[in-house]
Amino acid sequence: MSASEEELFGGPLRYDTGWSRHEYAFEGQTLGATLRAFPGMVAGTLRLAARADRGALWTVGAAEVGQGVAAAVGLVLVNQVLGALLGTGEVAGRLHGALPALVAGGVVAVVGALLASLSTAATGRLEPKVERTANERYLSAVVAVELEAVEDGEFRRLIDVADLGASSARRMVGQGVSTVNSLLSLLAAAGVLTVLHPVLLPMLVLIAAPRGWGAMRVTQRRYASVMLWVEHRRASSLIGRHLTSRESAPEIRVHGAGAFLLRHFRAMAANAEAEQARLARERAGTELAAAALSGLAMVVTWVALGLLVVSGRVDLAVAGTAVVAIRTGSATLGALVVSLNNLTEESLYVADLENCVARAAERAIPVGGAALPAKVAEVRFEEVRFGYPDRAEPVLDGVSLRVRTGEVTAVVGENGAGKSTLMKLLAGLLLPASGRVLWDGVDLREADRAQVFAQVGLVTQDFERWPMTAGTNIRIGAPDRPGGAAEVHEAARAAGAGPLVDGLPRGLDTLLSRVFKGGSDLSGGQWQRIGLARAEYRDARFLLVDEPTSALDPEAEIAAFDRIRGLAGPDRAVVLVTHRMAAVRRADRIYVLDGGRVAEEGTHDQLLAAGGRYAAMYAAQAAQYGPGPQSPQALPLPRRSGPAAPPAPAGSSR
Ligand SMILES: Nc1ncnc2c1ncn2[C@@H]1O[C@H](COP(=O)(O)OP(=O)(O)OP(=O)(O)O)[C@@H](O)[C@H]1O
Asked: Which residues form the signal peptide (predicted)?
């Protein structure tokens, strides 16, 4: 741990591997275990590749097998050439005798080179497709899970690590091809050596084994170091990002935080550099030891081969071929160990991706279910109870209410009363633990959820600010609606975002993101108008609006509430969650949530007359507008117009 880690982060940063099935699995793995896992890894790679591009996979397979055969044939031809050259007779005659094998050897070398380039081209075609297929597999699985899974911390970490799996899948193709290639060349060399003389095969193993061991040690040490240092690296790149980010720029300058962070950035980088140097030293030592052992084995081999030749057990041509086969074979074995190690490492990440896909399938929103009426008129809660997994107490407990088209329903209550949770149940995003949510009598648990979502529009406080054009930011409320620019513009106008959109440098085509060149940014209140325009464009039967106006100025807020109320019509229900009591006065029905229960319900007048919680909350806010206690009636009525955003006439949007 570095002093900077202690000072900035309160202690050593460790990679959270709780989610991962391969926590340090690779460390201490033996060559035998890697070899045993090999068929499974190859099968996994083949499955991914077959899904991505079957044709390219066949091409790669055939080209690799062809190269293996070419390598074996090449060695046999070397043996024939040497046999002819080292035979008896005139030099010219011996050369003549070697010619056919030499020509055949040339042809085989050309065929081998062609097959290698064919394999390279097909692998290059396959790799991006495998990455895309793997990405699509987990993205489409994650997009379809219940909201409750997305909010679950464990599942979130699975999603994060699955993201690494897709690029690993891509690299697995290349590593798989190298492994198969090395394996086949090695088999060719081993086969030829065995045929030449049985004692030659152990010689190959003797020379190659130390290099294999060295490669394995180096890879494992690197992996262990990466696992240990990954958080440290992430932290120092985090500091780098904050040093240059737009958000932190004012504080960096005014508070002088730049020099402070730079100092820690340098200190943390120095630690990482020391680790890299240590790894390099260890690697150099291991490789030197492996080379020494391998060299020793080579000396023993050449001596043994010499003795075999001298004693007449092996003729010169065979010995010559053996030298070639042993040299190519031992180089191939070294490459095999490296690619096998890489394959093992990558396959662990791909296994995490597969794990995420499997978990996502278990938590997917069911497809199909009971059909809803085309135009649902009422959603009813019956004794609904709901709790989050990490909380003992339920957030909603025995909630009964109803929401009807043609009405504005308001939900009020203190922070943490359960209002937003209730909205998510209304939207069909969460299912009750007990009780029922009925869509025109159809239980949400059995209902076709796609049909539920089709009738819902959402505007939340933290609605998405897509880093795309203003038009797309509105159109994305109903991506399947075949509306053109006129409809989008009309939605913007109806939501009070007309002047805003018109004032943008390229109107609806203006990119609302400073991340890209030529992009513009909006203020919080301007973004909220875009959010309302999106809801307007969606044109849903049940419009759920959760704290929509927190960033609007007072005039714009009043106009926005008027507009939201105006959206209710015979064909639409508006449900409004807000802390602004003035905004709920004209709601048709108001529910007061307290501690997850409906404490009161009724109209504004009924609730005031009851003198309960609602009346107290209303009086508390009204008191802020003037000195001394005020009657609720003294609260200023919402004005219907304001210079910031002229409201559309009620109902004009439809
Ligand atoms: N995803 C979640 N996981 C666990 N607990 C949650 C989650 N979302 C909300 N809660 C908890 O549930 C309770 C109700 O939260 P909710 O957001 O529904 O309240 P709210 O009435 O909308 O509050 P606010 O007025 O502050 O927006 C809170 O105590 C909150 O901490």
From this structure: none
Tell me if 463 is assigned to some domain: no
Task: Ligand 1 pocket test: pick from 386, 420, 598 the residue with the most ligand atoms within 8 Å of its Cβ.
Answer: 420
Ligand 1 first shell, C-beta below 6 A: 151, 388, 390-391, 395, 413, 415-421
Answer yes or no: is pLDDT of 29 > 70.
no
* CA 420 to centroid of ligand 1, rounded, Å: 7
Indicate which atom in ligand 1 lies nearest the CA of residue 461.
27
The CATH number of whichever domain residue 596 belongs to comes to 3.40.50.300
Residue 628's pLDDT is: 46
pLDDT tens-place string over residues 312-367 = 888 888 888 888 888 888 788 878 877 887 887 788 788 888 888 999 999 999 99
Residue having the nearest C-alpha atom to atom 26 of ligand 1 = 415
Q: From atom 13 of ligand 1, which residue's Cα is the shortest distance away?
A: 416
Split into its structural domains, the chain has a count of: 3
User: Which atom of ligand 1 sits closest to the CA of residue 148?
Assistant: 1
Q: What tens digit of pLDDT does each residue of 92-113 get? A: 888 888 889 899 999 999 999 9
Annotate 566-599 with DSSP letters as a single string: HH-BTTBEEEEE-S-HHHHTT-SEEEEEETTEEE
599: tokens are 């404490």
Of 221, 219, 211, 222, nearest in space to 335 by CA: 211
Respond yes or no on whether ipTM tops 0.90.
Answer: yes
Residue range 442-481, pLDDT digits in tens? 999 999 999 999 999 988 877 888 989 999 999 999 998 8
Average pLDDT of the chain to the nearest whole number: 84
Which residue's CA is minimally distant from atom 23 of ligand 1?
Answer: 416
Residue 370 has what pLDDT?
A: 93
Q: How far is CA 181 from CA 72, 144, 184, in A?
A: 13, 39, 5
- Residue 499 near residue 645 (C-beta atoms within 8 A): yes
- The residue whose CB lies within 8 Å of the most ligand 1 atoms, and thus the one to mutate among 154, 395, 591, is 395
Greater confidence (16 vs 223) lies with 223
Pair 323, 189 in one domain: yes
Candidates 391, 411, 597: which one to mutate for ligand 1, based on the most atoms within 8 Å of Cβ?
391
Reported pTM? 0.73
CA separation for the pair 478, 493 (Å, rounded) = 17
Q: Which domain holds residue 633?
A: 370-455+540-654
Which amino acid is it at 614? Y
Residue spans of alpha helices (H) in 144-152: 147-150
Mark which of 539, 569, 589 sits at the end of a domain. Answer: 539
Say yes or no: 526 and 548 in one domain.
no
Nearest-CA residue for atom 31 of ligand 1:
416
User: Do 333 and 201 belong together in one domain?
Assistant: yes
Interval between CA 536 and ligand 1 midpoint (Å)? 27
Choosing from 313, 338, 362, the residue where a domain stops is 362
What are the tens digits of pLDDT across the range 530-564?
A: 988 998 899 889 999 888 766 666 676 777 777 77
49 within domain boundaries:
yes
Q: How far is the CA of 417 from the centre of ligand 1 (A)?
A: 7
Burial of residue 213 (CB within 10 Å: 0-12, 13-18, 19+) is middle
